[in-house]
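Technical note accompanying the year-one report. For the benefit of new consortium partners, we illustrate the data format agreed upon in the data management plan: each record pairs a sequence with a structure-token string. No post-processing was applied to the example shown here.
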Amino acid sequence: MESIFAGSREFDVYDLSQRLSNRTTAFEPNPHSIEYIHGSLGVERSEKRWGLGAEYWPDGQAMNVETVTLTTHSGTHVDAPIHYGPPKGESITIDRVPLRWCIGDGVRLDMRHKKAGESIHRADVEAELKRLEYSLKPYDIVLVMTGTDKHFEEPGYDQRHPGLRRDATEFLVDSGVRLIGIDAWGLDRPFDVMAREAREGNKDQLWESHVLGRTKPYCQIERLCNLGSIPIPYGFTVVALPVALEGASAGWARVVAIVWK
């Protein structure tokens, strides 16, 4: 958390984003790698590109730079409706997501009592809203707290979360919510659970919260962190601005919660 003074206003900022590192590359479903270029490598590149060797740089050291290889769904990111499959209407890619969807009043739903692979239904969402004495309004940003982020640096973390079923997601979207976040690998239940049920004959449940977005467009934030650090369940502002990649299905985001004083 960081306290900030801006003019006459004071507010606390809570970082809800995952820090990408090479520590998790070996078991990431969407692998990534970070190459760190510094020291002699930086000088080598400087000399090759501009003809400027070590003698041109203070202490003989040129700039630092990194080369990152990753998917748009690595780390904390915002999914655009186009990610969910062929849309029934206008195709919304990440560079065309309205910014109005990405900044709004936040409300945190505590679903930590749900176990890995379990379902979060509309009744669960309504019960939590009733407990909080909160009524949803258009453009609220709903953050689903499962506690799974504590396992992000452990193999198999992508199978350890509960997930929203279609009735829960549809209830939120029909209430005017256009951005739903979760501190897990995905908004739906883990793929091993959905795949097993699909092979057993229940295909309708496969990726059902995502597929809803084909007909009722909305965005998701996946791989949030630190939702428990926000000191209040609502009354804060969420900012989740994705990188604008042309025609892409998602964009990385530095997501924060702002608690005004």
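Partners are asked to follow this layout when depositing records. DSSP finds five helices and 14 strands in the chain.
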